[in-house]
UniProtKB/TrEMBL annotation:
It comes from Rhizobium leguminosarum bv. viciae. It is found in: Cell membrane. GO terms for cellular component: plasma membrane. The keyword Phosphoprotein does not apply. The keyword Oxidoreductase does not apply. Residues 178-234 form the RCK N-terminal domain. Keywords: Ion channel, Ion transport, Membrane, Transmembrane, Transmembrane helix, Transport. The chain crosses the membrane at residues 20-41, 77-101. Residues 26-101 form the Potassium channel domain. It is a multi-pass membrane protein. Pfam families: Ion_trans_2 (PF07885), TrkA_N (PF02254). This is Transmembrane cation transporter. GO terms for molecular function: potassium channel activity. Its main location: membrane.
Length: 351
């Protein structure tokens, strides 16, 4: 008796909530009952072939009504009018309503930050929300997003809905250093992470958690205190710690007018002369920096400005500086180069 009572309760709850399992059972019962009734009515054209009957049932239930199959006898037509048609339409309407409700619920959950993007790969995660600054960051990231690159994911707290739905998906969390939120954001396969919390302590906590869960992602973090940024640079080599450049730009612009404009254009995705980076693949034959400089200028009309080699960045490399593979080149161009379009093997011949 307890088992039967429990079973009946489950059936009642499924029916009252119109669960998918309940809808499926109702559909099967109505389909089988319709088949048996037509069989008793002698409608051989409808029930002679199961495929034909299923086709007739779906066409009738969805009110399409092609008319190529229909009951011929009086009892068969009464069965269609009194049982198959109203029952089929009711079930079809319930399934359609349930489907639309499910889709709407999924969309609302995504907007409220309750989605799951743990399987996403090759995207950028932005940790923290500052009105204006973060929106601009997401807009710039979206402007440079490639055709096959997934949308960025914003992880923020205290936001009832996605504040930048045109530019990023959203994960809601109670703290930026929440491992579960990072996992839902797809941190394991992210290509890069940008962290900027409400204060440096929050940013640092988010960076430490992100490092543990994103072994291959490049991490960029903003710190208001330059001392904190320097400390992170020294102790966390994987993290690119960024401090405020306002003081440097003010003093440099005072002595070298236009310096702030140059810096802004080099960092702006909307500029026609923006700075980009280019990884150097493994090379069979070492190259000279000067040869690469001339080759890139002649073949792609870009200006090479520096190189990162063995952890050291040099923005005024000598022509004889060697490239063996694994370095990162920095260049100025109106568009990002496609690494596959660069003929590294022919760069040694620039005559």
């Amino acid at each position: 008796m307890p088992f039967i009572a429990s079973l009946l309760r489950r059936v009642y709850l499924s029916l009252s909530e119109l669960a998918w399992s309940a809808l499926f059972v109702i559909l099967v019962i109505h389909l089988v009952a319709s088949y048996l009734l037509f069989l008793l009515a002698g409608e051989g054209d409808l029930v002679g072939n199961p495929v034909d009957f299923l086709y007739y049932y779906m066409v009738t239930a969805t009110t399409v009504g092609y008319g190529d199959l229909s009951p011929k006898s009086g009892p068969g037509r009464l069965i269609a009018v009194l049982f198959v048609l109203p029952g089929g339409i009711a079930i079809f309407t319930a399934v359609l309503g349930k489907l639309l409700t499910t889709i709407g619920t999924i969309w609302r959950n995504r907007m409220r930050g309750l989605g799951d993007y743990s399987e996403r790969a090759g995207h950028i995660i932005v940790l923290g929300w500052q009105e204006g600054q973060t929106y601009q960051t997401l807009r710039l990231l979206h402007a440079e997003r490639q055709a096959n690159e997934p949308m960025s994911v914003l992880v923020a707290k205290d936001l009832p809905e996605n504040p930048a739905s045109n530019y990023a998906d959203y994960i809601r969390t109670e703290r930026l250093g929440d491992a579960d939120a990072l996992v839902r954001a797809g941190v394991a396969k992210a290509r890069a992470i940008i962290a900027r919390g409400a204060n440096d302590d929050e940013t640092l906590a988010a960076v430490l958690i992100a490092e543990d869960h994103a072994p291959n992602a490049h991490i960029v973090a903003y710190f208001a205190d330059d001392r904190t940024a320097q400390m992170v640079k020294q102790r966390r080599p994987r993290v690119e710690a960024v401090g405020s450049l306002a003081e440097e730009l003010l003093s440099r612009s005072a002595r070298d007018p236009g310096s702030s404009e140059i810096a802004a254009r080099l960092l702006s995705a909307a500029s026609t002369d923006t700075a980009f980076s280019l990884p150097v693949p493994p090379l069979q034959t070492p190259l000279l920096y000067g040869d690469v400089f001339l080759s890139l200028k002649r073949q792609h009309n870009v200006t090479l400005v520096g190189m990162l080699s063995q952890g050291v960045t040099d923005l005024n490399c000598g022509d004889e500086a060697p490239l063996r593979g694994g370095e990162t080149l920095y260049y100025i161009s109106g568009m990002r180069l496609d690494p596959a379009a660069i003929a590294w093997a022919r760069m040694g011949d620039v005559s």
